[in-house]
Every structure is written in C-alpha cells, then in structure tokens.
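hey m, so remember when u said the tokens were messed up on ur end? i reran from scratch. heres the input so u can diff it against urs
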Amino acid sequence: MLSFASCGRQHDAEQTVKAFVEANMENGGDDITSRDFADLGTTRHINDSIIQLMRHRGAPLFKKAITYPTAPDGELYYLRMSYVHQGDTLQNTFYLNQDLTEIVAFK
C-alpha cells in the first residue's frame, strides 16, 4: 500500500513540475523533446537564504520574473528533471512544498 501512495506522490510532483515548466520556461517548454524524472526526495537542508539565491539566479531557458509562493518551514520535496533541448541534455532540480502543489525554488 505504501508503494502505491509513493507512486501517487511521484505523479503529483511530476505534474506540478510540468505545469511550472510550461508556465515559466521560455517558449513554454515547446523545445523539449524528451523528459525524464528522478525519484522524489525530501530535504531539510534548504533554508531561506538558499531559496532566495536560487530564485535570484534562475536557470537558463527560464523567464527571469517568476512569481513564487511563500516557502514553507521545514522539509521540502525535490524532483530532478532531465530533458533534451535542441540536442543538449539538461537538468534542473525543483523544490516543492509539502503538498506537492507549488514550486518554491529551482536550480
């Protein structure tokens, strides 16, 4: 039963990341030809200053003025997405709230 719940959370996180990419990547991510997700993980090692730094830096191919929700205290989930853009394989890590409904930062 736990495995089934984990699969559901993985799927929820992937859907949240896909929606974030479509909304915030230049060209809506239309240039992506392949997507692969790592397993969903958790971390307590991301604090406010690290979140602010990631938000400030952004990432290549993404818009500069992204609006983020307030970052929750405590544990965050993260999900790595590898993708192919114009023949190059790239990767970003997305940090999600505990409900897996919002991206609070990414790198």
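this time it looks ok to me. The first strand starts at residue 32 and ends at 37. if urs says something different then somethings off w ur setup not the seq
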